[in-house]
Amino acid sequence: MKVTDILRFARERGEPVFSFEFFPPKTDDGVRQLFEAVEALRPLGPAFVSVTYGAGGSTRARTLELVIRLKRETEVEAVAHVTCVGSSRQEIAQVLDELQAAGVQNVLALRGDPPRGENAFEPHPEGFRHASELIAFIRGERERWRFCLGAAAYPEGHVESRNLAQDLVHLRTKVEAGADFLVTQLFFHNAHYFRFVERARAAGIAVPILPGIMPFTNVDQIERFTAMCGAQIPAALRAAMEVRRADADGSLQLGVAYASLQCADLLRRGAPGVHFYTLNRSPATRAIVAALRSMEPWRDG
Question: What CATH number does the domain containing 218 carry?
Fold first, then answer.
């Protein structure tokens, strides 16, 4: 099923969607654990799971394999990340052909991050410079590919361009090229999301915007992630994190508690759902979604 249909049906029922992002494991044991994690999530009714490329498109083949297996072997809808990094148009077309042949209906079309060790994105000489170009390429072959297309959005601005107005122009270009829904970069202050949605609607962007949440389990790790993506950590949360830096259990408990409160507030105030960046650790996200389903904060508004 297409993500847009999933979102529409959920909206008609007055319920949010919960989706989960995984990255391709490097080992067979990691793959087994990923499928176990997806299976453990099934009782919570995940709307879809997505599988990323590695940095620089380094896990393209494994991503393709995992998405196709998820589509064939589980009852959870799978979304494939497809990026511009290191790929020619012909190589991307081959990936899209394989996904469509396997029955995958949803693609998250991204520019992608530079390969590890490189600071700047360099497009393939026969590829694409921007996600909007990739989206337009896919939409330009409507008889060949019939994917529901997602794209990334940045409530605090893209890390390479902190100009919020210009970033919104780029986002509108992606939507006009054919993006059907948006998933935001992680954030820790809900005001960033709601201000962003308000600005996007004012700019004529009408597609669904799913907030992206990362329940942190390790202080050092989340600091590395936020440094890379530019997300701000609120002062009160940073102080609480610092107290628990060397306390693994305390960090996990804080991350789950903060994300639970953050998600409840998002849903209560009208967000269409939550997309969880799981870091391949489903117990934390399972606990959060189970708590949210028991509370049903979206019915309080």
Answer: 3.20.20.220
**What φ, ψ does residue 185 adopt, rounded to 5°?**
-65, 155
In a domain, 178, yes or no: yes
**Single-letter code of the amino acid located at 132:** S
Q: Which of 15, 21, 77, 133 is catalytic?
A: 21
| Residue 54: strand, helix, or coil | coil
The verdict on residue 301 lying in a domain is no
Task: Give, rounded to a whole angstrom, the gap between the first and last alpha carbons of the chain.
Answer: 29
Integer Cα distance of 48 and 183 in angstroms? 13
d(CA 256, CA 253): 5
Q: How far is it, in rounded angstroms, from Cα 141 to Cα 157?
A: 30
pLDDT digits (tens, 9 = 90+) for 132-176: 999 999 999 888 999 999 999 999 988 777 688 999 999 999 999
Structural domain span for residue 212: 3-290
Read off the pTM.
Answer: 0.93
Looking at the 3D structure of the chain, how many domains does it have? 1
Q: Which residues of the chain fall below pLDDT 70? A: 54-59, 114-123, 162, 301
Annotated catalytic, 21?
yes
